[in-house]
């Protein structure tokens, strides 16, 4: 399925909106020193401009799934972008710190809605076999914003003042809002009315996630003191209560049951581990560069920039690889590199060079690109489109939790080791050991992610959808497809394939491995190609030499040779399959775009049927006639040559059957 020009423009608007919100988050940190001086606040107070934004942003994400079930795409996008713009203007013109902080919190409300909406639209607009590329483009934008944000902010602050940053973001927001009014489809929600805003769920979500994330942040800085521990405990209780309540409501605010799907759950867990590892380096690297090497914040940013840029560039490439080959090999390589480079940080010392640090960090970000978006897409692809908005909200929420929890653990480990080692080894060596210990913990988390990737992430072409409402898609496809599937082993010869074709009156068969998973597909057309005369074109020297040798081999001789070949050697090596939960539109697209007559149907990686063009044609005609009974009436000679009438009550030909 090719996207229309309007769809591409719509996606450009959505992704640019996400870019602006992410860019906004990276602009504030460099401005904090200037804000502290102008507003006369200390560092702990000023830090709430980032902490508060993160908390409100996370609180809004679970609510977004409900909003997407109630409002159209355009209305929700415009509302979120307008809310973000209002908050930006408040922050820009704010005469004092409370107004500035209020503006940041309003910004966070809009940003918290916008990101899941953008991800949901990307997953729904693009077909399953192109979602990797779409999410790769999304990842490019999301990675590019943090790469340039601090540099842009530093330049603007040096040339003017921090207020200009918010004015620039405000102007960009207005442009996006104007474009969205014309380019974003006003698509009505598919499940309108299915979600109900339960007041208690809203309270539990807001307080639970808010207190838990704040508690994690406080634990990292204040340690195991009463207030952070109590806040975290209350927040966790609220979140658990919220999750339990969602499973019992007939129309939950957030469909947490998407986590019952193993593939989505595994993808989310791996994503959480990667998120924690990503934030760890972002926190610890500036400490190492600035505190231990005595270099400036600018140098610290330059150390991180190549990795961020490479990650952005690699995201679309990784997305295309995912669409063509699946996630397994790429994710295993990525998690392996991530584990190794994280361990390399765990053995840093005071004499490690900045060049070495930059190279390791850049390779580490390269590995992130091989894992982050591909695994997210792999997990999201397991969900039915009807619950995609809930899937994106659950995924984003748990990533926020992982980021906050990971930050708290890393800071706590680093601080405790530093405090223990400093009295005997000195401040510098104590700080170094604290950083080493924190990265060692990250290495263990990455190792867990690597093991999970090896064990669970597969390249199965069509795995079971998670929440298929009532199994409607499955029952439809199973009622159309042929369930008497005949397959060949990997060792089967062409002779065995031909015998199967003749005995079962079929024209093609899948080739399966010992576990029953498809690894190839052979048709009578593949065999005929081997028996036909060679037709070569002058494309390279080898073909030219081959072309000069006459094809004088007789048909019987050629047939005898072909019969002894392995079926897997002349058939398709990478079979194109569809999921048993796929809708007929997707099946038609797969058949048409790949010029196929039939494809295997998979459930949990195993073949459960074969569907071909004639199956769909017969079903489509029957469905059309069922919806148009007038066209189902005909009167004339039937297959037996006898006069037949269908739908007697509507036949007006005057024959006996019609009376």
From TrEMBL:
It comes from Adlercreutzia caecimuris B7. It comes from the Bacteria. NCBIfam families: efflux_EmrB. Residues 481-537, 565-631 form the CBS domain. InterPro entries: CBS_dom, CBS_dom_sf, EmrB-like, MFS, MFS_dom, MFS_trans_sf. Signal peptide: none annotated. The chain crosses the membrane at residues 48-67, 76-93, 105-125, 137-157, 163-184, 196-216, 222-244, 264-289, 295-318, 330-348, 354-380, 401-421, 433-457. PROSITE patterns: CBS, MFS. CDD domains: MFS_LmrB_MDR_like. Residues 10-461 form the Major facilitator superfamily (MFS) profile domain. GO terms for cellular component: plasma membrane. This is Drug:H+ antiporter-2 (14 Spanner) (DHA2) family drug resistance MFS transporter. SUPFAM superfamilies: CBS-domain pair, MFS general substrate transporter. It is a multi-pass membrane protein. One of its GO terms (molecular function) is transmembrane transporter activity. Keywords: CBS domain, Cell membrane, Membrane, Transmembrane, Transmembrane helix, Transport. It is found in: Cell membrane.
């Amino acid at each position: 399925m090719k996207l229309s020009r309007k769809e591409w423009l719509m996606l450009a608007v959505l992704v640019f909106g996400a870019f602006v919100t992410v860019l906004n988050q990276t602009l504030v940190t460099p401005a904090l020193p200037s804000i502290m001086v102008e507003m006369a606040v200390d560092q702990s107070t000023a830090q709430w401009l980032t902490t508060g934004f993160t908390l409100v942003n996370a609180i809004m994400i679970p609510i977004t799934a409900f909003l997407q079930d109630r409002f159209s795409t355009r209305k929700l996008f415009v509302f979120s972008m307008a809310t973000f713009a209002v908050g930006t203007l408040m922050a820009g013109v704010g005469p004092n710190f409370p107004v500035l902080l209020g503006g940041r919190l309003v910004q966070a409300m809009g940003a918290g809605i916008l990101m899941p909406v953008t991800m949901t639209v990307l997953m729904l607009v693009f077909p399953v076999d192109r979602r990797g590329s779409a999410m790769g483009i999304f990842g490019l934008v999301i990675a590019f914003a943090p790469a340039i944000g601090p540099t842009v902010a530093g330049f603007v602050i040096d040339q003017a003042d921090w207020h200009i940053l918010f004015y620039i973001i405000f102007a960009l927001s207005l442009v996006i809002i104007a474009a969205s009014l014309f380019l974003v489809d006003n698509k009505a929600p598919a499940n309108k009315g299915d979600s109900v805003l339960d007041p208690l769920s809203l309270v539990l979500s807001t307080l639970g996630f808010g207190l838990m994330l704040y508690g994690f942040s406080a634990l990292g800085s204040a340690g195991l003191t009463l207030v952070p521990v109590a806040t975290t405990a209350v927040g966790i209780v609220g979140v658990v209560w919220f999750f339990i309540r969602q499973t019992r409501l007939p129309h939950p605010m957030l469909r947490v049951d998407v986590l019952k799907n193993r593939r989505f759950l595994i993808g989310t867990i791996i994503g959480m581990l990667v998120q924690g590892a990503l934030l760890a380096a972002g926190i610890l690297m500036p400490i190492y560069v600035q505190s231990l090497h005595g270099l400036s914040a600018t140098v610290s940013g330059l150390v991180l920039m190549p990795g961020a840029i490479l990650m952005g560039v690699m995201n679309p490439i990784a997305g295309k690889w995912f669409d063509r080959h699946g996630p397994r090999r790429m994710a295993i390589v990525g998690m392996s590199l991530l584990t190794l480079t994280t361990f390399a940080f765990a053995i840093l010392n005071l004499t490690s060079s900045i060049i070495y640090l930059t190279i390791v960090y850049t390779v580490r970000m390269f590995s992130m690109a091989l894992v982050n978006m591909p695994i997210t897409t792999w997990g999201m692809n397991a969900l039915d489109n009807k619950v995609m908005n809930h899937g994106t909200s659950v995924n984003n929420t748990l990533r926020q939790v992982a980021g906050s929890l990971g930050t708290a653990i890393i800071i706590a480990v680093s601080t405790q080791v530093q405090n223990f080692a400093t009295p005997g080894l000195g401040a510098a060596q104590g700080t170094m050991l604290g950083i080493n210990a924190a990265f060692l913990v990250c290495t263990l988390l990455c190792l867990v992610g690597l093991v999970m990737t090896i064990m669970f992430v597969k390249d199965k072409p069509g795995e079971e959808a998670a929440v298929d409402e009532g199994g409607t898609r499955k029952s439809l496809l199973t009622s159309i497809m042929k369930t008497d599937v005949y397959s060949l082993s990997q060792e089967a010869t062409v002779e065995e394939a031909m015998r199967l074709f003749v005995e079962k009156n079929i024209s093609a068969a899948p080739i399966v491995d010992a576990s029953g998973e498809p690894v190839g597909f052979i048709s009578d057309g593949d065999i005929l190609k081997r028996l036909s005369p060679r037709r070569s074109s002058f494309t390279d020297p080898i073909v030219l030499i081959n072309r000069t040798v006459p094809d004088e081999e007789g048909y019987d001789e050629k047939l005898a040779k072909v019969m002894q070949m392995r079926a897997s050697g002349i058939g398709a090596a990478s079979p194109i399959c569809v999921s048993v939960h796929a809708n007929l539109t997707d099946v038609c697209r797969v058949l048409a775009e790949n010029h196929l007559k039939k494809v295997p149907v998979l459930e949990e990686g195993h073949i459960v049927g074969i569907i071909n063009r004639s199956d769909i044609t017969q079903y489509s005609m029957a469905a059309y006639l069922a919806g148009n009974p007038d066209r189902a009436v005909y009167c004339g000679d039937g297959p037996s040559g006898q006069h037949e009438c269908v739908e007697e009550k509507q036949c007006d030909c005057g024959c006996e059957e019609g009376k």
